[in-house]
Amino acid sequence: MLTEPKLKYRANSHKPFGDNGNCFYSNITSPDCDGGRDQILRDKLYNRRDPLPIVIDLETSEEIVPDVDSFFLENPLLLEATGVTSNLKFQRNSNVSQKVSFEVYNVLGQKLLEHRLAPLLNSIVDVSTRADGLYYLKTSLPHSPIFKFRKTP
User: Fold this and answer.
1) Per-domain boundaries in the chain
2) What is the pLDDT of residues 78-126, one digit of tens each?
3) Phi, psi (5° rounding) for residue 73?
């Protein structure tokens, strides 16, 4: 978190929950430890016999709920057919301008193929050398589903 610019630790915000700021990490059940937390809560926290829960403040300069326009409302990439004999055929949504790559996995989760699609709206990838069976295809696009396809003779 200290190196991730989207979410930052607010300096000096680390404190045990239940410490009113004037207990100075001493016994929180003391009546001298008054402030924002009441005596009943401090007694219950002390009787847990666990260390006090720690709280920190985090901050971000990013918007928490992104604008709807920042998401694709339709699939950025489509597989033309899920049953193939030799070629996987892709149709790229015209809204996708970034480079697209994908990985193909077998049912055991082993990565069998990595491929980068040409910057065209339609692309073809040869899978004729692969054994017959079920495969999973994962793209580099953030909102694209994982595709299943079946290679047949």
Assistant:
1) 1-62, 71-151
2) 888 888 999 988 887 777 677 888 899 999 999 998 988 777 677 888 8
3) -95, -10
Amino acid found at 3: T
**Whole-angstrom distance, CA of residue 153 vs CA of residue 68:** 43
Nearest to 74 by CA among 141, 26, 18: 141
**DSSP annotation string for 4-29:** -TTSEEPTT--EETT--SSSTTS-TT
- CATH class held by domain 71-151: mainly beta
- Give the separation between CA 76 and CA 93, rounded to whole angstroms: 5
Burial profile 48-65: b = 16 or more Cβ within 10 angstroms, e = fewer? eeeebeeeeeeeeeeeee
Q: Which helix (H) or strand (E) holds 43?
A: helix 39-47
> The pTM is what?
0.50
